[in-house]
Specification:
The protein is mostly helical and about 300 residues long. The chain is built from twelve helices and no strands.
């Protein structure tokens, strides 16, 4: 890095990029909701056709037990229905992606070349000021910080009578931490060459800071957006800025030289997996307690109307 002017320009460019993504993200959300408003009339015919189709009626008559089990898995009103099925499929997909990434790392595939190239490219930018800033950001992903955040979140959930979110929150946190440390000791990947003043007691793959941040901050954003924030715009804001925080924690691990890019990608996948597990458990507990797992039809119509304004 040539001068302090480079740092200022980099920060300004990053801020402009974030604001541009924020503007584009909200426009895409509005387009999505506007499209959803037009879907129900067009889906009425196909739904009726599917319900009365000869193959479905034959299957129901010939294999009643199997038909009931399959129908239950795709029932949007069942606690173990469509939402849980979709979450399980998404979790399985993330697990498959993680498996492919682990294979690439173990076999020294092309991702390893990218890891070292990015680490070397960031070296000129590691001035004392930039390192101090990113060290502060990375501290938001420590186990101690995440444990404190989970404890405060649990207290707030209990205070506002949302206790069904407490167990899923701790499941995402503890599950992500356990999986991370298991991966570290099984794969035992060496760290990058650590910068002066940095110490690491565990292996590199995956990034525990990124995993924990994705799991804990992601679940809190989900719970707050669903329970406490009326309207699509406030929900978008908390999801967007929480996502940015998680990505910043992950990038900070790369910038300070504590992890490779693939370590952080693996952390996002592991954290995302446990985040989906937390979502599924939270929805099941809400159904068990007689609470809706998602917005009802009239509420959805109200939300869609708000987006258009």
């Amino acid at each position: 890095m040539n001068s302090a002017n480079d740092v200022v320009l980099a920060v300004l460019a990053a801020l402009i990029g974030v604001l541009a993504m924020h503007w584009l993200g909200w426009r895409l959300v509005r387009l999505l909701f506007a499209g959803l408003r037009r879907l129900p009339p067009h889906l009425t015919g196909p739904r009726r056709w599917l319900a009365e189709h000869e193959l479905r009626l034959r299957a129901k008559a010939r294999y009643p037990n199997a038909y009931r089990r399959v129908a239950k898995r795709f029932d949007p009103h069942s606690p173990v229905g469509l939402s849980l099925t979709l979450l399980m499929l998404a979790a399985a997909y993330l697990a498959a992606l993680l498996g492919g990434l682990v294979e690439d790392v173990v076999e020294n595939d092309s991702i390893v070349l990218v890891d070292h190239a990015v680490t070397e490219a960031l070296q000129p930018w590691r001035s004392p000021g930039m390192m101090a800033a990113f060290n502060w950001i990375t501290d938001l992903g420590t186990s101690a910080a995440l444990g404190a955040v989970a404890a405060v979140g649990s207290a707030l959930f209990w205070t506002y009578r949302r206790s069904s979110a407490i167990i899923p929150l701790w499941l995402t946190f503890l599950g992500s931490q356990a999986t991370t440390y298991l991966g570290k000791y099984v794969i035992a990947r060496p760290r990058p060459e650590l910068q002066a003043g940095l110490e690491a007691l565990t292996a590199s793959f995956p990034s525990g800071h990124t995993t924990g941040a994705a799991a804990v901050y992601g679940f809190l954003a989900y719970a707050i957006a669903r329970e406490q924030l009326p309207g699509s715009r406030p929900q978008f804001e908390i999801v967007f800025w929480t996502t940015l925080l998680i990505l910043l924690v992950g990038f900070s691990r790369i910038f300070i030289g504590a992890h490779f890019v693939s370590d952080v990608l693996a952390g996002l996948l592991v954290g995302g997996f446990w985040l989906l597990v937390g979502f599924a458990l939270a929805n099941w507990l809400r159904r068990r307690d007689g609470l809706p797992a998602r917005l009802g039809g009239s509420q959805v119509s109200s939300e869609l109307a708000k987006v258009d304004r």
